Structure formats: structure tokens, C-alpha cells
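Thread: Diaminobutyrate--2-oxoglutarate transaminase, structure

OP (GT): Posting the sequence first so everyone is looking at the same thing. Length is 462 residues per the record. Can we get the C-alpha cells written out before standup tomorrow? I want them in the notebook alongside the other entries.
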Amino acid sequence: MALTETVPAAPAHEGILRRQSLRESAARTYARSLPIVPVRARGLTIEGADGRRYLDCLSGAGTLALGHNHPVVLEAIRTVLDSGAPLHVLDLATPVKDAFTTELFATLPGELAEKGRIQFCGPAGTDAVEAAFKLVRTATGRDGLMAFSGAYHGMTSEALAASGGAQHTSVARLPYPYDYRCPFGTGGDRGAELAARWTQNLLDDHKSGVPRPAGMILEPVQGEGGVIPAPDGWLRRMREITAARQIPLIVDEVQTGVGRTGAFWAVDHSGIVPDVIVLSKAIGGSLPLAVIVYRGELDAWQPGAHAGTFRGNQLAMAAGAATLAYVRANGLDRRAGELGARMLARLTALAAAHDCIGDVRGRGLMLGVELVDRDADADATGARPAAPELAAAVRDACLDRGLIVELGGRHSAVVRLLPPLTITDEQADAILDRLADAITAAVRTTPGPMGSSPTTLRGTTP
């Protein structure tokens, strides 16, 4: 009788990943670079089905201001579930909705809080962007829009048209200040001033081919564009330029809001008050919710001008109100600014030790590390070509070390850190220790372009 060899069954998580690959569309993104199956999570930590634990610096692309399953969020959700209140009510008024709106308005810049109006949109930020565009077009009677290079505002057609990857669009594209890769080759205050002057001249030149638009949309920190904070002075110039020409200014705070940058809203750093502010992600306390808040004088559209079946998500409103209140009561916005500054200082020291790090930047707990080809010649401003292969290797090395990060930037060469606002000093150190170790490992194993030697630490020899 022939002996047969028993083949051990594959772990359950491998079957789940295999079935996902077979069933889900080719458009899936995070699942390709993060082949894990989360089964439990708390705070900064995710546990996979394989038993491994990970520090989550993705935070649902910035959705989880308080981290996973924070007690105040869970309690808010349970309270609604146990109350017997309806969970789906379209745009009807409810006590839960009223409490959320009251808490949200308590955090807004004064002028918006006093005279603003709110529109509850479909559950994703991109729908709120669409609503903002409809609003300003209705209020002004104009059609065109102004947006910025490197922007990201969502995946619906109009939002994509205003984003950096647009291919066919009538949206006028403007230069965004970017010190490391300044479009004017200067960087600093001079680059920001030239960017502002370009915008002003485009609007005032009747032969520019850009008629006065219905609105301008910008991010105070470009997230997907590579974690690029706009200078406060430049933001004030954009507010002055648009106000003087009666162009509504739309600020996209989908990712920067709820304390992420070290202020409750990123516009608070510069002191500007936009005409429209687009909010999603963290305002739902981990659940889908999106709104726009805008100046009352823009409220010219008719009933049904923008609607959506799932704009009355009661659980998200309860979780969101609890999150907003917790961040405000515990000063987590200030905490994000202080801890983010310390983390940025450590990243700056890390950059000094690695030729492959071209730039580190960020604001609050929204941080980015731009990886470059150290063997290539720098341009006139000192910037080297992006190294997307190395960035992907760093991301993979981070995952091997139990750290979840994502990539962004013009060539997907920026490692982005978006930890929860609730992380401790010790957890911040652990994040940076794992990232530093991952970079060291990746530069030793990733060849440079066209077969050149791997990137190495400064002060070492290949």
C-alpha cells in the first residue's frame, strides 16, 4: 500500500485573499499593496487573521481620528441602536442629526458658524465636492472652475476633473506652492508669491482664455498629492484674490479636518474663512458621512438640487458628534500639532542620514517622506527624480515590520503617515523606529534605475 502525504490546509486568511482576488474588480487599490485580513482593531493596532499585529498609520485614509473602535464612538453607536431610533431617514430632522450639526458648528470658523448653512450629501467626500460645485455654479450663474496641480478631490467625474490626474477638462489649472519641486524653480516665499501672482494675472488678463469662474477649490494640505502644506500667507492671498473678484473659495478639508494638522480645521492656521468648506472622513467617526457648510448668501439652489438616499446616516452622525466633541474637549488638535512637530524633527534627522530621502514635510499628524534617486543629478533647486520603486519597497518593508503606511505624491514616491490623533509618545517612537528600519532594509535591497547600485546611507560606500 502506497503511503500518501497529507498536505496541510492553507490558512483561512489566504483563502479569503485568494477569493478577493478572484471576485473583486481590477480597480481595487489598498488590497493589492496590503495583503492582510483585519479581524480585530483597537486604537492604533490592527490584528490580522494570521495573528500578526500592525501599527496602522493609514487610519482609513485619515477617517479614524480617534483610531479603531474608540470607546466614545462605540458608546455613541450603541446608544442609537439601543434607543430604537430609525437608522435611515433621508434628510428628515432627528435629535441625532441636530446634535451632530450643533457640535459641528461649534468647531467652525466664526463667520461660518454664525451664518452658515449645511447640506448633507451622499456618504463620500467626492459627493460633497460635487455638491460644492453645483452650489457655486447656481449662486454665481457661472460655469468654470479653478483648481490646482497635484490636487485630489475624489473619484466622481467632476471631482476628478478638478484633481491632478485629469485628462480632459475645462477646469483651469493653477500652480500649487511646492518647495521641494517648485514649479518656478525658487521654492520658499518667492515660489508662493509667484504662484499667487500667476493666479491673479490669469484672472485679470482678459486674453488669458480663463473667464471668471464659478469657484476656486483648494486643499490646505495636499494629501494624495504628496503631503504638501500650503503656506499660510499664500492661503491668505488666495482668499484676498477670490474675495476681491467675487469668486467663491471652496476649501476641501476632507482629510485635513478634525484636528489632523494641529488645528481643528486646517484653515484655522491661516485665519481665512472660505465660502464653502467640504467635510467628510473623520467627521463621521469612522462611518460614512459627508457635508458642505457654506455662507448663507450662496444658498440659492432649489429643493432637490442636490440629494442622495443615504445622506441621513444616523449612526455616522452619532459617531461623528462624539468624535468632534472628544477632539475638542481633549485638545487633540493641539496635541497633534505638538507631537507632529516632534515626529517631523525625527524624520528630518532620518533624512540627514539617507541620500534617498529628498524631503520630509507635513503639518500635525499628516506627514510625508519623499524618496528620490540619489544617483541622479539634482535640478537647479536641489531636487532629485522621484524613486517610486524604492517607495514601494519601503512600504512593503514597513508591512513586514508590522507598520501600515500608504504612498502618495506625483510619482507615488511619498511615504505618508496618518496615525490617529490619540497615539502616545511611545507609539509615535515605535512608528518612526519601524519606518527607519524599513528604509534601511529597502535601500540595501532595491537597485537603482538601469541596474545601478542600491541607494545607500549617507557616509557609507556602496
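GT: Both are above now. Quick notes for whoever picks this up: Residues 450-462 have pLDDT under 50 and may be disordered. The chain has two domains: 12-69+332-451, 85-329.
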